[in-house]
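#onboarding

Welcome to the new folks! Below is a worked example of what a typical request in this channel looks like: someone posts a single protein sequence, and someone else replies with the predicted structure as tokens. Don't worry about understanding the tokens yet, we'll cover that in week two.

Example request:
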Amino acid sequence: MQNLMKAYPSKAVALILSLSALLLISSQAQAQMYKWVGPNGKIVYSDTPPPANAKKLASKNFESNSSVSTANLPPELAAVVSKNPVVLYTAPNCGACNEGRNLLKQAGIPFTEKTVKTNEDVDKLMQVSGDTALPYMQINKSKFKGLESNEWRAALAAAGYPETSKLPKDYRYSDPEPAAPQVAGEKKNADAKPQEAPKPKSTSSNGIRF
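Example response:
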């Protein structure tokens, strides 16, 4: 390796960065998501097993950090995505959500988008953010409720994301997914009456606050 660095210093550095990123990505552990009914009758999603007396609904394996594929990303960007994944919660007919989505895409930030449409989605949003405000962005464990463009940009920079887009020209963002996806093997009850989420001030009909 030392001879390689002396002969081709720039190529050696690139090789080391690539290997480091691959090792970091491959070290991500598979975790498991559990779903059960809490004492108050509401559905709980968590990566920790439910209490022994809880009514278990289902569980599934999921990628512990991010569902964003890093296969075609530059090594430096792939490493940031793996360490500080970005998740964006949005809802239909939400102007601020559209602005937040556009901000991330224009900055070249790979992210996972989760849509809030159903009451289960609202429950999931409440669990991860403690509120119903949208858009909601999460960078690893840092939470950002509502769109504050300067705050978002500063947080992304602090997380290690580049100031200008490093995405390949052929990069395509994945389609949004439900905030509370149906777990395999779970059947939807079409006749069940959905629970209404609490409606804070200035909310939409389903309790989501913009």
